[in-house]
Design goal:
The structure holds 2 protein chains of 2 kinds. Chain A is about 35% helix and about 25% strand. By secondary structure, chain A is α/β, with parallel strands linked by helices. Chain B is mainly α. Chain B is globular and about 65 Å long. The chains are: A alpha/beta, B mainly alpha.
């Protein structure tokens, strides 16, 4: 599904978090929002999900204006840095949650829910953990469960907010590779927020560099690396490469 | 022989102190109560605790306390939610007011409530023509019990609500859950143990309450008399073994309440266990 963002503005008090952002994301793309902390990239992602509302501007999902719709109507798959798992539910119930709260007419049968959850447990390579609770899992395992939970409802877009931020370097690399492979297979339109350049350059088809709530440069990893960006982009990249 | 492997030093000393302390302050008086009860003989004991007037007080003490605890469960939860989630002018003052029943001498509460609800007073004068009798009626007992038990629920639940992170609610919304489903399946379950604790404490407090109730209830036999009042009356009549018998009965009942409370709590906490 394509995503279209038109002249989006959002201020917190006098502080402009998102400043006139216009952006088009093609179906099947994997796009990284890269920028320093406080640059507004997470706010932008949250506005797309419907967790935050813009002061001005519009968001379109596949041509449909979703600006006035709430998060539970947009149903974007969202993965949080903090996992945000339901600690009182088993892994199985966590993943099944989105299927169980579906409106009565669209709800799958118990049998179908079990099938879907089990196949997702295979996808995230954690079969056999269905009856554990989140507190019994490692950070990397929890984040994979969060992925599976978001994927269970078959979202048309996947939004990831610093998904590997809380993990150690080794697990981060593993999961990053896993995500790239998953995207290669499914071509689910995905946006992820990161401040880690290595992550952005390795996983994304296109990178959007954001600072002070505004887009500084958009391009493929190669285009960005070629050094055609403005002063901010040059300085930001020089800090790390 | 293996060596002592406790991480904390002074294990024996601290356990020794704790056991002695609890024994002297809690177990010894309870044992004395049992001893006093036993000295009256079985027949006297049974006669005392099955006296019709006394049996009627169990209904008031345990029954109305239960209703009060449930009402406190609902409104205490709401208050805790609002204190934890919203900031509004006067919130701190309102929170402090919530704690007042903790510190207020219960007789003061009794006088205040009676002053409000007596047929000729502030609220009472409007309820009287409607045929609603609060003071000197079971409803008065209920209101006094709600009053003194309310802060227990708020104080038990509020810190747990403050600990809940907003992201699980957002996660639920992104998965298509509406507000009601989010509250029912995501927010409420982790709060249940704390809510049970609050309700049980508020129940226990209401069962043991004396001071505020005797003012507003009018102490009408078979209607608004509470069990602690019976104990007091027996003491006034120098019937010490009778008072002890009732005390013992209440002790057993309280023990059952505490045990049920612990059960509910560990059931609500089952998902926190780490294998």
């Amino acid at each position: 599904m394509s995503i279209e963002i038109k002249s989006l503005h959002k201020s917190f008090g006098a502080f402009p978090a998102v400043n006139d952002v216009t952006l088009h994301i093609e179906t099947g793309e994997m796009v990284a929002f890269l920028g320093p902390s406080g640059s507004g990239k997470t706010t932008l992602l949250r506005i797309i999900a419907g967790l935050e509302f813009a002061d001005r501007g519009e968001v379109y999902f596949h041509g449909e204006n979703v600006t006035p719709k709430s998060a539970n109507e947009r149903k974007a798959g969202f993965v949080f840095q903090s996992y945000a798992l339901f600690n009182h539910m088993t892994i199985f119930e966590n993943i099944a949650f989105g299927l169980r709260v579906a409106p009565r007419g669209k709800r799958l049968s118990q049998e179908k829910i079990r099938e879907r959850v089990n196949s997702l447990l295979e996808t995230i390579q954690l079969p056999g953990l269905a009856n554990r609770f989140p507190s019994q899992l490692s950070g990397g395992q929890r984040q994979r469960v969060a992925f599976a939970r978001a994927l269970a409802v078959e979202p048309r877009v996947l939004l990831l907010d610093e998904p590997f931020g809380a993990l150690d370097a080794k697990v981060r690399r593993e999961l990053r590779r896993w995500l790239a492979e998953f995207h290669e297979k499914t071509h689910l339109t995905s946006l992820f927020v990161t401040h880690d350049q290595e992550e952005a350059f390795e996983v994304a088809d296109r990178i959007v560099i954001i600072d002070k709530g505004a887009i500084q440069q958009i391009g493929t990893p190669d285009e960005i690396r070629s050094g055609s960006g403005n002063t901010f982009v040059k300085e930001f990249l020089a800090l790390h490469i | 022989m293996t060596k002592n492997k406790h991480v904390m030093p002074g294990f024996r000393t601290s356990v020794g102190w704790s056991v002695t302390w609890v024994s002297l302050l809690v177990l010894l008086p309870l044992a004395a109560l049992v001893g006093k009860t036993a000295s009256g003989g079985w027949e006297h004991f049974w006669e005392t605790i099955t006296d019709p007037e006394v049996v009627a007080t169990y209904r008031v003490t345990f029954g109305i306390s239960f209703i009060a605890a449930l009402i406190n469960g609902v409104f205490g939860f709401l208050a805790a939610w609002i204190f934890a989630r919203y900031d509004f002018p006067g919130r701190r003052l309102l929170e402090a007011a919530t704690d007042l029943p903790f510190a207020l001498p219960t007789a003061v509460a009794g006088i205040a409530l009676t002053a409000l609800y007596s047929p000729s007073e502030w609220i009472g004068q409007y309820l009287e023509p409607l045929g609603i009798k609060v003071a000197f009626a079971p409803a008065g007992v209920l209101i006094a019990m709600i009053f003194i038990g309310f802060p227990f629920v708020v104080r038990a639940v509020q810190p747990v609500i403050e600990d809940l992170s907003a992201d699980v609610e957002e996660a639920a919304a992104c998965l298509g859950a509406n507000r009601w489903q989010t509250i029912r399946f995501v927010i409420l379950p982790p709060l249940l143990p704390a809510l049970f604790t609050g309700i049980i404490m508020s129940y226990g407090r209401a069962v043991g309450e004396y001071g505020s109730i005797v003012f507003i209830s009018g102490n009408i036999p078979f209607q608004t008399e509470i069990t602690p009042l019976m104990i007091f009356q027996k003491l006034e009549q120098y019937d010490y073994t009778g008072a002890a018998a009732l005390g013992f009965t209440m002790l057993l009942a309280s023990l059952v309440i505490v045990l049920i409370g612990n059960r509910l709590q560990s059931w609500g906490n089952r998902f926190r266990k780490i294998a």
